[in-house]
Write a structure and sequence with these properties.
CATH topology of the largest domain: Rossmann fold
Distance between the termini: 19 Å
Strand order of the largest sheet: 7-6-5-8-9
Order of helices and strands: HEHEHEHEHEHEHEHEHHEHH
CATH architecture of the largest domain: 3-Layer(aba) Sandwich
Helix content: 40-55%
CATH superfamily of the largest domain: Aspartate/ornithine carbamoyltransferase
Largest sheet: 5 strands, parallel
Shape: globular
Number of strands: 9
Structural class: alpha/beta
Number of helices: 12
Bound molecules: phosphoric acid mono(formamide)ester, norvaline
Number of domains: 2
Strand content: 5-15%
């Protein structure tokens, strides 16, 4: 059966860690200047309904480093923009490329594409999840902590797509996720329910301070995700007290690290002082997108050497 990563729930705990171990190996090999062409003559089609810096670059450079090719496709330039169905596009692309990555506004678009494609389909961000990001986040956390089960991970801010994936990651990692979000912007109730029913430890906190207290890992994301721009003013007012700043970080453990998937809105969800400070690991987190994306494509195509 073909493999997909539309949701983090598409893979098992064992597969999750297989991908991360492979990413570690690829990172070490790359540091030594070793670039094995595991994907010679393979190609990845990438469809972007929304902007991207990290996702696009990491997959494109990653495919190149593995000896393959990546194509960036803008739906407006494709016949999809003139009404060709998702199903037919999936069937046709399956005849040309080895795998497809899609960044879409609606999660349903990616699910539909995966249903009709005969090749692996990767979710490069939807309104519901960002599984590729969370692979990089957990890789980064593992670079700082040996035992994931003991960690308190604090999510502070919007209960959005990235938050959903962090909640799902707790199923595999065993860390406890403490979330503090305004009541209007809590994660979807069904995500919390599914994650808990599969063993994730999730604590809902009343305040950002409660979530940050004694945390090992503090994570946030933009208050205004792509597609939320109409609510920008309202959101910036409601989220004001959810900023990751030095005062909040004093409550976390002294060794705590700070993650942000980026792009950051400095002065909103995170201050310059924290983002550029010693606890910030955001640049390693961004780099790790490259290593996990390479590992993911190799695993999806069953090319793990
Ligand atoms: N974190 C992330 O997915 O970044 P891009 O939107 O730049 O791809
Ligand atoms: N939550 C953000 C993540 C961007 C990588 C968004 O959806 O825009």
């Amino acid at each position: 059966m073909k493999r997909n990563l539309v949701s983090l729930l598409d893979i098992t705990k064992e597969e999750f860690f297989t991908i991360l171990e492979l990413a570690d190996r690829l990172k070490a090999e790359r540091a030594e200047g070793h670039f094995p062409s595991y994907l010679h003559h393979q190609s990845l089609g990438m469809v972007f309904e929304k902007s991207s810096t990290r996702t696009r670059i990491s997959f494109e450079v990653g495919m190149h480093e593995l000896g393959g090719t990546a194509l960036v496709l803008n739906p407006d330039d494709m016949q999809i923009g003139r009404g060709e169905s998702i199903a037919d596009t999936a069937r046709v692309m399956s005849r040309f490329v080895s795998a497809v990555m899609i960044r879409a506004f609606s999660h349903k678009t990616i699910e539909e594409f995966a249903r009709f494609a005969s090749i692996p389909v990767i979710n490069g961000l939807s309104d519901r999840e960002h599984p590729c990001q969370i692979l990089a986040d957990v890789m980064t956390i593992c670079e700082h902590f040996e035992i994931l089960e003991d960690l308190k991970v604090a999510w502070i801010g919007d209960g959005n797509n990235v938050c959903h994936s962090i909640l799902f990651s707790a199923i595999y990692t065993g860390y406890e996720v403490h979330i503090s979000c305004p009541s209007e912007f809590m994660p979807d109730a069904d995500v919390i329910e599914i994650a808990r029913s599969r063993g994730a430890s999730i604590v809902l906190c009343d305040t950002p301070e409660g979530a940050a207290k004694d945390a090992d890992v503090v994570i946030t994301d933009t208050w205004v995700s792509m597609g939320d721009e109409m609510e920008e003013e309202l959101r910036r007012t409601i989220f004001k007290s959810y900023q990751i700043n030095s005062k909040l970080m004093k409550l976390a453990k002294p060794h705590a690290i700070v993650l942000h998937c980026l792009p950051a809105h400095r002065g909103d969800e995170i201050t310059d002082e924290v983002m550029d400070g010693p606890q910030s690991v955001v640049w390693d987190e961004a780099e790790n997108r490259l290593h996990v994306q390479k590992a993911l494509v190799l695993w999806l195509l069953d090319k793990v050497a």
